[in-house]
Amino acid sequence: MKQICITIVLILTFVYVNAQTMPDTAGKKITYVVEQSAEFPGGIERFYNYIGKRLEIREVEQLIGVVGKVKVSFVVDTTGHLTDVKALSNIGCGCEEEVVHILNTCVQWKAAMQNSRPVRQKLSIPLTFNFPRTNISMAELRKGADGYLFRIKGTIYSIDQAAGILGETFPFEKVEIATLYTEDDKYGLEAKSQIYLVNIKS
After folding, report:
1. CA dihedral defined by 166, 170, 173, 179, rounded to 10 degrees?
2. For the chain, which end, N or C, has fewer CB atoms within 10 Å of the first or last residue's CB respectively?
3. Which of 64, 86, 66 is nearest to 75 (CA)?
4. What is the arithmetic mean of pLDDT over 8-28?
5. Is 118 within a domain?
6. Model pTM score
């Protein structure tokens, strides 16, 4: 993966329900409406920067671009640690997984307070992603954690074969779409995290 500078529109919203507390699957009470909400150290702007600095964008996202909203929920426990981090959306390209990973390893928050005592609070966060498409070389694709195959005029080629046809660099405008490749023949890419099939426009 390659870390790049991106712009993320982030809005932190609290999940409100009729009851003030509800049990989670483990039987522990989660508070939704509190006197003092849980807070990231330094406030929302620092949380925005924290996520933005840690997002690593996969090469496939650079190839096809990603525009959409990722929504995740999590619980801030009484010690300020994040638990039960879950993705509530699916825009693909590993965006949800990346955000969930960042939150699972997030620094300690200031716990929510109710009646002068720390309580567990559930929050949800929508993140608007806007990753523009960019040119990327075959060398960068080879180095990445994911593997790539190319469909050119109906035929599937390995990355080296595709480089012989398209060149070691090619404009992103030639890419129609990239989808997960799930066939049994892995073209020697078994060690890669995921394999993507890049469809080239005719």
Report:
1. 70
2. C
3. 86
4. 44
5. yes
6. 0.69
